[in-house]
Write a structure and sequence with these properties.
Layout (H helix, E strand, L loop, with lengths): L7 H15 L4 H17 L13 H27 L8 E6 L5 H13 L3 E6 L5 E6 L5 H19 L10 E2 L7
Antiparallel strand pairs: 1-3, 1-4, 2-3
Helix pairs in contact: 1-2, 3-5, 4-5
Length: 178
Amino acid sequence: MRRFLPQPVLSLALLITWLVLNNSVAPGSIVMGAIVGLVVPWITHRFWEIGAGIKDFTALLGYMGVVLVDIIHANFVVARQVLGPNRALNSQLFELELDLQGALPISILAATITLTPGTVSCRVSADQRSLWVHALHADDRDEEILGIKQRYEARLQRIFGQPVTAGSNATSNPGAES
């Protein structure tokens, strides 16, 4: 069964998503959704072997809510900044020292930073101990770093069962190699 249906929850989610996107529960839509729900997990089963290691699902739900609210809020902030005088922008490139460990949690942090308008994660160091971030506007680099660490990194540490640290180390020299 596991070989035929490697990710049953994903298969069900894909079927439901297919039906919602097509706004139909016609037999043809159900069949096509079932095909998508069976084929996509079967093709991507190797990627799922990583294992998420999520320890706190309620923290995950809270994290998703925080990210959603931050994305909506940041859209308005960035629109105001871009439509205003460009000379008022103070873009910064900084290195965020990571307390978070593991490829998946770091990837989620990098994706979160990039999804939030006004910031982009640029590069993860080879040793996975730092992440380069570009902010469209940041008055205080250290405050920006502290915000990322408190709002996102600490929550991800709780989600993945890692010890939560309060450190906010950063390097301000964008030319330095990590």
